[in-house]
Amino acid sequence: xxxxxxxxxxxxxxxxxxxxxxxxxxxxxxxxxxxxxxxxxxxxxxxxxxxxxxxxxxxxxxxxxxxxxxxxxxxxxxxxxxxxxxxxxxxxxxxxxxxxxxxxxxxxxxxxxxxxxxxxxxxxxxxxxxxxxxxxxxxxxxxxxxxxxxxxxxxxxxxxxxxxxxxxxxxxxxxxxxxxxxxxxxxxxxxxxxxxxxxxxxxxxxxxxxxxxxxxxxxxxxxxxxxxxxxxxxxxxxxxxxxxx
Length: 245
Prior knowledge:
Strand order of the largest sheet: 2-1-3-4
Strand content: 5-15%
Protein name: Glutathione S-transferase
Domain GST C-terminal: 92-240
CATH architecture: Up-down Bundle
Number of helices: 9
Structural class: alpha+beta
Keywords: Transferase
Radius of gyration: 18 Å
Shape: globular
CATH topology: Glutathione S-transferase Yfyf (Class Pi), Chain A, domain 2
GO biological process, one term: glutathione metabolic process
Number of domains: 1
Domain GST N-terminal: 1-90
Largest sheet: 4 strands, mixed
Distance between the termini: 51 Å
């Protein structure tokens, strides 16, 4: 039975971290909200689950994954569930929790990226909080990008199995998520990230290696890969970008 991924149509957003894992593993999955209503798919199918009247396991928000009757919400939770099944996480339970900690740190980073363009309220348009967004983005570029990427660079450098992967000696879902973070930051803040290769050589090498993986390379060239746009998490507003000191 195919996995069912539920996420907003038309954006990469948080759902992309799950898509990358499924695509790398060559897993059978349906991106439900992008499918036709005639097949019981599309956005109404997602809302039908979220608005359920009797279920105890209602997801608060997408993305969420269905595996048979099981519903798993939240990116890090989904990836922790999928990781062993897809060969993208160690079998040892303790090591999986370490890996999950790295993914949760990415979750924190993604939340801060979102707040660069919506620092006041998600219910308001970007244009209604542009001045606050400029201040938040400046702080993010100056302090938070170096804080987060410096941490992941250090973890890569100190990996006893080598710096090719963030954990252990084989590809994990966190490697794929770091690829997406790297891609997203370069899209949203091209000036601020112009010198990532010099500042974070291990992250840059990881990004290049993931991009060359056969399944990922095919996915990136397919119409399944939604382009970055200004409705997702990583948004490019030139007025928010600046050169990094």
